[in-house]
Design a protein that fits this description.
The protein is an alpha/beta fold. Helices cover about 25% and strands about 25% of the residues. Strands 1, 2, 3, 4, 5, 6, 7 and 8 form an 8-stranded mixed beta sheet that branches. A hairpin with a 4-residue loop joins strand 2 and strand 3.
Length: about 180
């Protein structure tokens, strides 16, 4: 199965259910549908379809990682930021990091590869996933991300995204 909304009903929490929860909480977002996007390069190729000119926006790349002690991490970065996993592990004080498997991604974040998103922390908080976010998010007015599937993108105001984290009990650790 791919990570598109065609298979969202096989997820622990569907994209539609997540969006309904955002609505119930009064958290505003704009929803865009597009071809499935699996990489930053694919995202950059279509983002002009929904980016608002002049908007102070942050577009993301997300890494699901594990350390040697089998602790799980979701690391959300500005999409063009270069990352060295060895240096990141040292910076976070967790040692060596590697990418988590597709099975563990589903088990811990309830999503498939290609749809990794900070919104997946709605599942991750229950599974002790530690969340790190690029400090650039603190300066962005709007943040673009997948709502648990990779053929949709939502844009949310920074304040609404931070309220989402508060509502689900997710502590955000900021990466400089």
């Amino acid at each position: 199965m791919d990570a598109s909304s065609a298979f969202q009903d096989t997820l622990p929490l569907s994209s539609d259910a997540l969006l309904a929860q955002l609505d119930d909480w009064g958290l505003a977002y704009r929803l865009y549908s597009h071809v499935p996007l699996r990489t930053v390069e694919e995202s950059k190729a279509v983002e002009d379809q929904f980016m608002v000119p002049g908007e102070n926006a942050l577009r993301l790349k997300n890494l699901y990682l594990r350390d040697k002690k089998k602790r799980n991490y979701l690391v959300t970065l500005e999409q063009s930021r270069e990352i060295d996993l060895k240096a990141l592990g040292a910076e976070l004080g967790v040692g060596s990091l590697s990418f988590g498997s597709a099975d563990r991604l589903m088990q811990n974040l309830g999503i498939r590869p290609g749809a990794v998103s900070p919104l997946a922390m709605i599942n991750g908080v229950q599974n002790d996933v530690t969340f790190f976010m690029d400090a650039a998010a603190q300066k962005a007015d709007v943040i673009y991300m997948h709502p648990l599937v990779n053929d949709r993108t939502v844009s949310m105001a920074r304040g609404d995204l931070l309220e989402f984290f508060d509502r689900i009990g997710c502590e955000v650790a900021w990466l400089p």
